[in-house]
Amino acid sequence: MTRKEEPAFDTSKVQNMLKNVTSLEDLTGPNGVMQEMFKSTIERILKAEQEAHLGYPPHSETGKNTGNNRNGYSSKKLKTSHGTVDIDVPRDRNGEFDPKILKKNQTFDPVLEKQILGMYARGVTTRDIQTQLKEVYGTDISPSYVSKVTDHILDGVYEWQQRPLETTYAVVFLDAIHFKIRHEGKVNSRASYTCMGIDLEGNIDVLGMWISENEGAHFWQTVLNDLKERGVKDILIACVDGLKGFPEAIEAIFPKTQVQLCVVHQIRTALRYTGSKYHKELIKDMKLIYNASTLENAEKSLENFEEKWSKNATAAVASWKNNWACLSTFFDFPQEIRKIIYTTNAVESLHRQFRKVTKAKGSFPTDESVKKMLYLAVKGLKVKKKNNWATMLGQLKNYFGDRVY
């Protein structure tokens, strides 16, 4: 005789609950109809899983002398988007039953976990996440539990940071952003180093992020070594800020790489060394240098700049002169490539996104908490490809020859 199929949930109980529904909260809120259907369905599946494990249905004679049998239930509180649900989990005498739909240590609905991660990725603080879950779903969790949920991201962070990279990158942008991190009762500023690259197919990708106490050329050398260990053999052009020793650090690891110092950083540096009353005119004259059509014209504008400002902006002039070898690299290339490499705007745009998702954080408790949030921000970006890349690749081929393949 075929055993009658049981419904997924207690239909009579649900029907009685439906008679008393007067609002949406009665349907979807705590102790509502949806919660009852969820609870009953999960418990029905758990019973079916246990039956498959034991090999016989409840109260069946075939279960006698099998060496294992049913042994009541244990209660588990499962936090879900329908609120906290009390689930009766069936047990077996030998303790061998391991349900698939609801793992032994699982106390959180995966859908709700995704919602937590989504809020965390948008920069919502752990306490605000706690408040929203309580107000919207009636699910009460602690901020530490939110941190525990988001800690699962760290495995993904590690795999992402260790993934193999392309052999050659046409352009890489290297820059750092700073965050406040609490350590042993003190709040310190730490640098998060970001490397963004454009490969020979024109794909734009964040190659990695590294955290250290302060931004310095020595640590950038560590970053570059990491890129090399992950498979990078050649970088055609590296775009960096004006950090002292940066070009030398790049040359030590990738000796063939052309280094372009960020012109915008250079302008900021020059202005910092000069009185504010000169800024407007100084900006106008610096623009003549970096907007020149050729290297020859740029050098002529630099000479005029030096002649005009040698007295009132001595340090600004010196900074242009001392860094000119790496500031002028972009003049070797056609206009399409110049627009890409003369600043580190590409990675600074990413850093603005980082600021958006971290602005609610006065400080972070650990380096790992920074890594989690920045990783989620990176994963949330749309994969991009450089426009008009075929033309630019041809121009790079003309300049770099066999290094472009």
Describe the structure.
By secondary structure, this protein is an alpha/beta fold. The chain has four domains: 1-107, no CATH class; 108-150, no CATH class; 166-262 and 343-405, Ribonuclease H-like superfamily/Ribonuclease H (Nucleotidyltransferase, domain 5), CATH 3.30.420.10; 265-337. Helix content is 48%, strand content 18%. It has 17 helices and eight strands. It has helices at residues 11-19, 24-28, 33-54, 110-121, 126-137, 143-150, 153-162, 217-229, 246-253, 263-272, 279-290, 295-309, 314-327, 335-341, 345-358, 367-379, 389-400; strands at residues 70-80, 83-92, 168-183, 186-199, 203-212, 234-240, 258-261, 384-385. The longest helix has 22 residues, at 33-54. It is elongated, with a radius of gyration of 31 Å. The model has no long low-confidence stretch (mean pLDDT 86).
Feature tags:
single chain, 405 residues, 4 domains, 6-stranded mixed β-sheet, two-stranded antiparallel ribbon
Helix fraction by DSSP (H/I, runs of at least 4): 40-55%
**Count of individual beta strands:** 8
CATH fold field value of the largest domain: Nucleotidyltransferase, domain 5
The CATH homologous superfamily of the largest domain corresponds to Ribonuclease H-like superfamily/Ribonuclease H
SS content category:
alpha/beta
Highest CATH level, the class of the largest domain: Alpha Beta
Helix/strand order, N-terminal first = HHHEEHHHHEEEHEHEHHHHHHHEH
Name the shape in a single word: elongated
The biggest beta sheet is recorded as:
6 strands, mixed
Q: How many helical stretches?
A: 17
Low-confidence runs = none
Please name the CATH architecture of the largest domain.
2-Layer Sandwich
Distance linking N and C termini: 71 Å
How much strand content do the residues show? Answer: 15-25%
The Rg value, from CA coordinates, equals 31 Å
For the largest sheet, list the strands in their spatial order.
7-6-3-4-5-8
In terms of quaternary structure, the protein is single chain
Number of domains: 4
Mean pLDDT: 86
